[in-house]
Amino acid sequence: MPRSDAPFSQPLRARGAQRLLDIGVAAMVLVVLSPLWLGRAVLGLVKERRLFDGEICVGLGLAQFRRLRFAGDLPLAGLAVWWHLLRGEMALVGPRALSPTEAERLPAAAMARFQVPPGLISAYAVRRQVGIAFVDESSQDLDYVAQTSLVLDLGLIARWLLGRLLHGNAKPLAQPDSVAIFGIRLDNMTMPEALDWVMAASAPGQAPKQIAFINADCLNIAWRDPAYSATLRAADRVFPDGIGLRIAGRMLGFALRDNVNGTDMFPLLCEAAAGSGRSLYLLGARPGIAAAAAEAMRRRFPGLMIAGARDGYFNANEEDAVIDAINRSGAAILLVALGAPRQEQWIARHRAQLAPPVAMGVGGLFDFYSGRIRRAPPWMREIGLEWVYRLLQEPGRMWRRYIIGNPVFLYRVWKQKP
How many separate domains does the chain show? Predict the structure, then answer.
C-alpha cells in the first residue's frame, strides 16, 4: 500500500469545471460508442466467459480502484476505461495511473500527485509522444498539480489530439540501438542515455570523440555531399534531431526513443558538467553570442565552468590560434556552432589536434541561450511544430529548408523503404 500518512501540501482539489468536462465527454463517448461498447462486452463474455479484466491502481487521495478493460486481447478492450471517468476515479487529464508498487516507490515529495485523479492523458505523455519528455515524469506531474485548471486541461487535450493527428497513433515499433537513414548510422538513445555517454566520454584520459546532431536538413545535405556523408559516418555518435527524423523512422518501420537534439541537451549537459567539475568551451556564432550564452548558463548553474568562448568569425590563417586557445583552456567538452556541414567537417579535420575529449556540432544553439533568437513556445514543441516557429522567425533564410527540404527528405526516405 502507498503511504496513507504522506503529507499533502494542500487539500484534495475539487476540480469543479474539470469534473463537469470529464462527465460530459465520458457520457458522450459512451452514448456515441454504445454499439461498440456492447458488442465488445458480448465478445468478451462469449470468448473469455467473463466481462472484464482489470488491474489495481492508486487514485485520488491514495484510494485504490480496479481499472477495468474488457476481457481478452481482442481490439477495443480499453473502451471500458470511460466508466471510471463517470465515477470520478479517473479524469481526462491527470498524472498517469500508478500501480500500488509504483506508488510505494515514490518519494514523499511526489505524493502531491494524488491530489488530482489519474488521467487518460498526462502532461508527460503529451511531450513523450514527440520525444521531448526530458523532465522526469514525477516533476512533470507535480508541475501539473500545482497549475491544474480547466484551461490547462483543455490545452493539454488539444495538444495531445494535434500531436496524434499530425504524427500518427502508430502501433508499437521496434527500437533498435542503431538505425540507418541514407547509409548514415543514427544512435537510438534516450536523452539520459545520450547524456551519460557524453559525460563518460569526456572524462580525463578518454580518446577523442566526435558527436553530431542531425536533422532532416543535415541528411538532405549529406545526400548530395559525399564528403559530409563520410564525416557523419565516421563520427562516434550521431543523434537524431527533429520531428522529421521521427516521421522517417516510422516510415522505415522503427521508432526513435527520443528527439536527442543539442538545444535540449545543452542545459542538461551544463548541469551535469557543473556537478562533475567538467568545463565547456563554446566556439561559434556571431561576435558576442557565445559569450552571452556562456554567461546565461553560468547564472543558471552556479559552479558551471566555461573554459572559454569565442565567435565563429575566423579564417584559415587564424585556425591554429583558435585551436591553441581551446587546448590551453583545459575544456573537457567543445561545442562548435558553425552550422552544418561546416561545424562537423571542421571538428573532423582538426580532431587529432584538439585536446577536449568530446567535440560536438551544435548549430544555432548559442543563439537561443544568449537570447538573440527566441525558441518556439512549449505548446508548439509538444505537437512537433517547432520548425514552423523557426520558419515564421526567419522566412527568408528558412523557407527553402522547410517548405522544399522537408518534403524532399520524406520523399527520399520513402524511396529508401525496402
Answer: 2
| Residue 360, strand partner residues | 211, 335
What pTM, to 2 d.p., does this model score? 0.86
- Give the per-residue pLDDT at 135: 84
Is residue 383 a part of any domain in this protein? no
Q: Are residues 139 and 284 in the same domain?
A: no
How do residues 66-105 score in pLDDT, each as one tens digit? 999 999 888 899 999 999 999 999 999 999 999 999 999 9
What is the span of the domain harbouring residue 198?
178-370
Cα–Cα distances (Å) from 173 to 129, 182, 188, 252, in that order, read 13, 20, 13, 10
Average confidence (pLDDT) over 402-417: 94
CA 271, distance to chain mean position in Å, is 17
Residue 363's CATH number = 3.40.50
Burial class of residue 398 (count of CB atoms within 10 Å of its CB; 0-12, 13-18, 19+): middle
In a domain, 158, yes or no: yes
Banded model confidence at residue 372, pLDDT cuts 50, 70, 90: very high
User: How does DSSP assign 153-193, residue by residue?
Assistant: HHHHHHHHHHHHHHH--PPP-B--SEEEETTEEEE---HHH
Helix H or strand E encompassing 265: helix 262-276
On the 0-12 / 13-18 / 19+ scale of CB atoms within 10 A, 163 is buried
List the alpha helices (DSSP H) in 330-404. 342-350, 365-370, 378-381, 386-393, 395-399
Residue 31: Cβ-neighbour burial (10 angstroms; 0-12, 13-18, 19+): exposed
Identify the band that residue 10 occupies on the pLDDT scale cut at 50, 70 and 90. very low
Sequence-ordered list of residues with C-beta below 8 angstroms from that of 64, at least 6 positions apart, any chain: 1, 56, 57, 58, 100
Mean pLDDT of all residues belonging to the chain? 92
